[in-house]
Amino acid sequence: MADPRSGLYDRRMVSPHILMQQAQPSRKMHIPNMLTLGRVVLAWVFVILLSNVEPRTIVAQATGTDRLGEIAQQGTGLLIAATVIFIIAAITDALDGHLARKWNVESKFGRIMDPMADKLLILGGFVMLATPAFNATIAATGSTMQISGVAGWMVVALILRELLVTSIRGAYEAEGVDFSAGSMGKAKMILQSITIPLILLIVAFGSPGPDSTGRLVITLLVWATLVTTIFSGLPYIGKALQHTMNEQARMLELMRGKKARKSTKGGSQSGKARPKTATGGQNTKKR
After folding, report:
1. Which of 139, 125, 259 is nearest to 195 (CA)?
2. Is 95 helix (H, G, I), strand (E, B) or coil?
3. N or C: which end of the chain has fewer CB within 10 A?
4. What global pTM score does this model have?
5. Architecture of domain 25-249 in CATH?
């Protein structure tokens, strides 16, 4: 065993219980990050499954037999599998943050990857819901409709909100301003996590044609999510504007203080009597 005064000890002389306690923090540190990486993988699987869904044919006023026929259409299994993957990914989102705070193992990797995994899962889901794969043909009329209820402009609005908030948080948190998610941001995330799987299940098992109950539920969910998402970005914008105004006011006060000090110093110098310079014979040497 090494000299105790040097702080180096033989690991064989240390209790196994102490060694296990020392190893636990390092293990705990990696668990939330592994869950986050797992959510990134699940998000990609979710998007790939939805990208293979094919347009459906639905009956405007579906009977029991018609609904069974729609459930048996190709792509229903993909919708169910995508829903399961989404729910598992959403559970890991809640779990990794809880464990990181509980064990006090929050890391820069987690702060970067966790929001990115969330955006990939949520925005990826809404992008896929707006694709032609969710265009349904009404059997009776031959007309088409976006069965998911998600229009392209809605996805653009959601992406714009996320880009704006992410840019604001990145710029101002670098200056030490706290831009952690508030109640509106958490409500937005919960509503988004409910809306996407419910739409997928209604499309898979229901017949959300025009004037149907399923269509009404989808419309309410999509619009509630859109409005909540947009309004949840307003507190970030307001906080950024308030911080900017405070910084500008502080800079103006500093500039005024500097100008006041300069004017005071300049006045004191001008008030001093200048020394007389010797001229003529007084400054000449005697010969």
Report:
1. 125
2. helix
3. C
4. 0.76
5. Up-down Bundle (1.20)
